[in-house]
Amino acid sequence: THFGYKTIESEQKQAMVADVFHSVAAKYDIMNDVMSFGVHRLWKRFTLDASNVRPGNKVLDLAGGTGDLTRKFSEAVGPTGKVVLADINDSMIKVGREKLHNLGVVGNVEYIQANAQALPFAENTFDLVTIAFGLRNVTDKDEALRSIYRVLKPGGRLLVLEFSKPEQAWLNKAYDFYSFKILPEMGQLIAGDKESYQYLSESIRMHPDQETLKTMMETAGFDQVSYTNMTGGIVALHKGFKF
Ligand code: SAM
C-alpha cells in the first residue's frame, strides 16, 4: 500500500497517524462535511440517541478530535455531569477546544491528551465511553478496548462508531471507487493534502468488519455486544456493557 501500512512497526504507525491528524486538524470539520456529504452528522446524532446518556453522567469522548460528540454530550449530561474529551493529538484538541469555547460549550467539559491504549483514569470512572472514527487509528485495538473496559463503571457502556463493511457487494465496489479514486483528490483540492486522505481510505479498508469487532469487544470483557449498521454498513455502531 501507499504507506506500506501492513509492514510498518507500531511506533511508526503511531507517528504516521500523528502526522496525518496534525496536518488535517485545521480543515478537519469542513472535510468531514464534504467527504460524507454531511451524513456524519446523522451518524453522530444516532450515536447520541443510542447512548442513553442522562443528566449527571460522566462521559469519556475518546479520540474526541474536534469535539462534535463532546458538544452533544455536554448538553445531555448538564451542569451536574461531566464530559472528558481525550485525544492523542494536541492539534486536534486545540481545534476542538477553540470551537467548543466559541460555541459556549464550557463548564462541564475537560480536555486531556491521552493514548487510548493507556487511559490515565481510575478504574470505574465513566458511565459511558464513546470512540467515534477513532478506533481504526489506534495501533493496538485490543489493548485500547481493555483500557476502556477498565475505566468504565460497572453498568457502564461503550459505543464504537466506526467505518465498517458495506453489506451489499455493489455498494462495496462503489465505495471502494469513491474512497480510492475520488476522496484523495478531494483531499488534495480542499486541504492540499492527498496523502493523508489516502491513508484514511486505507485505514478504513484495514479495519475489522462488524463481526470481528464484535468478537474483539467480547474478548476484552464486554457483555451484550451488539451493532447497528448505518448507510448500508458503511458505518456501524457497536455497543457493549461492563457488568
Ligand atoms: N471523534 C471525532 C469525530 O468523530 O469527528 C474525531 C475522529 S478523527 C477521524 C480520529 C481521532 O483519533 C484523531 O483526532 C486522532 O488524533 C485520534 N487518535 C488516533 N489514535 C489515537 C489514540 N491511540 N488514542 C487517542 N486518540 C487517538
How do the strands and helices of this protein lay out in sequence?
Blueprint: H1 10-24, H2 28-35, H3 40-51, E1 58-62, H4 68-77, E2 82-87, H5 90-102, E3 109-113, E4 126-132, H6 141-151, E5 152-163, H7 169-191, H8 194-206, H9 210-219, E6 223-230, E7 235-241
Parallel strand pairs: 1-2, 1-4, 2-3, 4-5
Antiparallel strand pairs: 5-7, 6-7
Helix pairs in contact: 1-8, 7-8
GO biological process, one term: aerobic respiration
Keywords: Menaquinone biosynthesis, Methyltransferase, S-adenosyl-L-methionine, Transferase, Ubiquinone biosynthesis
GO molecular function, one term: demethylmenaquinone methyltransferase activity
Biggest sheet strand line-up: 3-2-1-4-5-7-6
**Number of continuous helical runs:** 9
Oligomer: single chain
Q: Tell me, what's the shape?
A: globular
Low-confidence stretches: 1-6
Mean pLDDT, as a whole number? 93
Radius of gyration from the alpha-carbon trace, in angstroms: 17 Å
In total, the number of strands is 7
Bound molecules: S-adenosylmethionine
CATH class: Alpha Beta
Largest sheet properties: 7 strands, mixed
Q: What is the H level of CATH, i.e. the homologous superfamily?
A: Vaccinia Virus protein VP39
CATH topology tier name? Rossmann fold
Total domain modules: 1
- From the coordinates shown, what is the CATH architecture? 3-Layer(aba) Sandwich
Structural class of the helices, strands and pairings? alpha/beta
Binned, the helix content reads 40-55%
SSE run? HHHEHEHEEHEHHHEE
Protein name: Ubiquinone/menaquinone biosynthesis C-methyltransferase UbiE
GO molecular function: 2-methoxy-6-polyprenyl-1,4-benzoquinol methyltransferase activity; demethylmenaquinone methyltransferase activity
Function: Methyltransferase required for the conversion of demethylmenaquinol (DMKH2) to menaquinol (MKH2) and the conversion of 2-polyprenyl-6-methoxy-1,4-benzoquinol (DDMQH2) to 2-polyprenyl-3-methyl-6-methoxy-1,4-benzoquinol (DMQH2).
Keywords: Menaquinone biosynthesis, Methyltransferase, S-adenosyl-L-methionine, Transferase, Ubiquinone biosynthesis
